[in-house]
Specification:
With 179 residues, the chain is mainly β. It has 2 helices and 8 strands; from the N terminus they run H-E-H-E-E-E-E-E-E-E.
């Protein structure tokens, strides 16, 4: 391989970055516990148990990878997953969200100006504890942004288009939002 190809390969390997995020959150408000019930018994309670007066249990996972193969560009991709359970005032539901993103960033040699093109796809779903759909939405979000540094001053501008198909309580809607 040529020295330019070796430089590109080396720059790609050296600039490759991975980020992983994991979080878990659990809050339970319990009542009517039997004498002698321990933490393990409580963890085994079904989600719709009468012993749970209010509950929120959630987990989130995120993955991001970036690479800068050239001195004038950067490429990135990410995936986020959320799973939540909520119970309050006698109603219980599950929420799941998947989001995929990709971006390309181009910048000048002294990194004082950049243009970024980004695309995001999200699929969100809320169901009752019995599996009945409460709401579902799919959205596409392309965006374009520009940043410029003028000495100590920075300027940013951009446009984002959101296209969303949503069904909520049986009512379907489509929307287009420009921000």
């Amino acid at each position: 391989p040529s020295s330019e190809a070796k430089g590109l390969w080396r720059r790609s390997i050296e600039s490759f970055a991975i980020n992983l995020d994991v979080s878990f959150d659990a809050r339970d408000y319990l009542r009517k516990l039997d004498p002698g019930e321990n933490v393990f018994d409580i963890l085994k309670l079904p989600d719709d148990s009468d012993k749970r007066s209010s509950s929120t249990i959630g987990s989130r996972y995120g993955f991001r990878a970036d690479i800068d193969p050239f001195t004038w560009s950067s490429f990135g991709t990410s995936y986020r997953l959320s799973n939540d359970f909520t119970k309050s005032a006698g109603t219980a539901s599950r929420y799941k969200s998947d989001t995929y993103e990709g971006d390309v960033k181009l910048f000048n040699s002294d990194n004082s100006s950049s243009i970024q093109l980004r695309y995001s796809f999200s699929d969100r779903d809320r169901t009752s504890i019995s599996g009945t759909s409460i709401s579902k939405s799919i959205s596409h979000e392309p965006s374009l942004s520009w940043r410029q540094s003028w000495g100590g001053t920075k300027t940013s501008t951009g446009v984002r288009l959101t296209l969303r198909n949503q069904t909520r309580s049986g009512v379907k809607s489509n929307s287009m939002i420009i921000t």
